[in-house]
Please model this.
Amino acid sequence: MELNTQIKKYRAKMNLSQEELAEKVFVTRQTISNWENSKNYPDIHSLLLLSSLFNISLDQLIKGDIDIMKEEIKESELHKFNHNGSIFTILLIVTIFSIVPLTIFFDIYGFIISIILFIITFIYALKVERFKKQNNVQTYKEIVAFTEGKRLDEIEKNQEIGKRPYQQILLMLGSALLTLFISLLLLWILKAFL
Model:
């Protein structure tokens, strides 16, 4: 049962109009109408007043909505993770491809711009890593499963935990080699045209 239905049900059980209920929980009649029509949710203070007024536990009042709220929180966190991951990826690519040209064309100023880009990229990398650590997802398979709203079973989870140290080392080495290759390639191309 959803919160809007619960409010309507208990208000009717107490023979209260929306206006009378609004007076008892210190809100407007329009606010009660919005709650009952699922246009918005009561804040925690109002929920406590409602549960006290209806003489029911807070758990009984919001029982069906707890799962909905958890899902909304999970969706917003997942959206934030994907957003930060996208920004990090774009910044990483821009940083890798711009270091050599910026340094060659703008000397020290280009180097300073590259450092600033690197710092911003690093900040987003930390945000992504913090999220991964909070949700205990580190390997590629864990991240893909998490972004699809799935969880690995116990055996798969243990296998992925065993892979973590190796994947981190390989990822670090691969990133360093890719960055070196791209930087040298850009340097070679720019020298050929200059």
User: Anything to note?
Assistant: The two ends are 71 Å apart (CA to CA). The mean pLDDT is 83.
